[in-house]
Structure to design on (431 residues):
């Protein structure tokens, strides 16, 4: 602060500063904070170019980045350029990494990166933020497939990590591998031409994942989001689109998952909910989402699943060995393909359908049915206040031992719809 007072005095004293002088002072002060020493965070700001990085997309800048991260600084400002990285870079605890421009500040995997290495590795790291840059997997020159390759990022045994406005691009393997970490946030990130976006298949103790305002677009296989045995997961305002194979989201053996206000388009499957390592999914909430042009989805070995105010178009959702599942205030639209619920595998029980619209105007559902039951008992299945448009409940007989309660449901003309089948109990008083 004494230095700043001397600067002010140089321009004629504190009380005599003119507008032009103030501009100079502000620029000097900004340089003081950004370029040299940050009083608030008590940390120097350094750049890879301070350590010899070139950033021309040809030179190997690995050593410069390693020296930068080993310098003891905590703030790392990466100017525009394409930096070729040929070894994994370990991010220090407490780091704040920020790029000049997300489109033109690029860390790109080099051809010498070993298999399973990550461009950036937040290993045993805490209280770190990365912001405003691109991690490019160099898909045309770095080998990989759905089973192995080089990663754009790994977050492992880490705590309090923020990934904001980062583009993960061009990787045949993983965008970000998330393993055994706590309180990790992905905010306003882009996953372009990435096989699997955020993948936690190797983790068992991840707790606290927030994924918000992110876009996952393109590539062939795997899932934009796949987490195993994790808990307290929040996915909001995200878009998943154009996945030729795989699910938009996969949660296996997870606890307390909340997905809200997401748009899923042209993915082979909507979601995959099932167990992992003998742990069933518990407490999955999906609300205010749109699933369009996704052929199927699955709820298996999962308990306490609530799906509300969602739109499913051209999707068949299979339910297997699950209980306490509820669909409410949602739409099932068969526009170009069937849109149905299928029961398969082992017995499912306590499944509710409340205030939904089943729109089979196209007549594409098999036998115009909403349900498809593959030789399995379904127990305590409740339909209440649903609207069936050119659709029936089921065009075959239910398996003996099944129990379905059918209450106050209507057809497209507003007429009370009653199902006369064995194992179906119509409860229409008070409708």
């Amino acid at each position: 602060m004494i230095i700043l007072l001397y600067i002010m005095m140089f321009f004629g004293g504190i009380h005599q500063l003119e507008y032009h002088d103030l501009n100079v002072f502000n620029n000097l002060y900004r340089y003081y904070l950004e370029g040299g020493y940050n009083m608030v965070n008590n940390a120097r700001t350094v750049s890879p170019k301070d350590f010899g990085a070139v950033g021309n997309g040809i030179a190997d800048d690995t050593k410069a980045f390693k020296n930068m991260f080993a310098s003891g600084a905590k703030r790392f400002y990466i100017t525009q350029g394409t930096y070729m990285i040929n070894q994994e870079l370990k991010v220090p605890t407490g780091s704040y990494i920020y790029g000049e421009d997300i489109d033109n500040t690029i860390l790109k995997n080099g051809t010498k990166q070993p298999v399973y290495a990550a461009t950036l590795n937040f290993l045993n790291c805490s209280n770190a933020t990365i912001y405003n840059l691109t991690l490019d997997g160099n898909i045309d020159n770095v080998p990989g497939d759905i089973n192995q390759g080089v990663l754009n990022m790994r977050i492992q045994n880490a705590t309090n990590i923020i990934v904001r406005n980062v583009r993960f691009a061009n990787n045949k393997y993983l965008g970000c591998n998330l393993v055994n970490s706590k309180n990790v946030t992905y905010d306003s990130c882009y996953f372009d031409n990435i096989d699997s976006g955020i993948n936690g298949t190797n983790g068992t103790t991840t707790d606290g994942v927030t994924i918000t305002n992110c876009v996952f677009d393109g590539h062939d296989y795997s899932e934009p989001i796949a987490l195993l045995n994790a808990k307290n997961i929040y996915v909001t305002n995200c878009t998943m689109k154009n996945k030729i194979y795989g699910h938009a989201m996969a949660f296996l053996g997870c606890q307390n998952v909340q997905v809200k206000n997401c748009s899923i388009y042209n993915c082979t499957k909507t979601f995959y909910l099932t167990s992992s390592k003998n742990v069933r999914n518990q407490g999955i909430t999906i609300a205010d989402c749109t699933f369009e042009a996704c052929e199927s989805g699955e709820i298996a070995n999962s308990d306490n699943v609530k799906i509300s105010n969602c739109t499913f178009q051209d999707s068949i959702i299979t339910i297997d060995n699950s209980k306490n599942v509820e669909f409410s205030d949602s739409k099932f639209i068969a526009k170009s393909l069937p849109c149905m619920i299928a029961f398969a595998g082992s017995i499912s029980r306590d499944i509710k359908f409340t205030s939904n619209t089943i729109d089979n105007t196209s007549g594409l559902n098999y036998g115009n049915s909403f349900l498809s039951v593959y030789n399995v008992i379904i127990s305590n299945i409740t339909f209440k206040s649903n609207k069936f448009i050119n659709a029936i409940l089921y065009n075959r007989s239910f398996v003996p031992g099944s129990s379905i309660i059918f209450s106050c449901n209507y057809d497209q003309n507003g007429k009370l719809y009653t199902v006369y089948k064995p194992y179906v109990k119509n409860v229409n008083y008070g409708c």
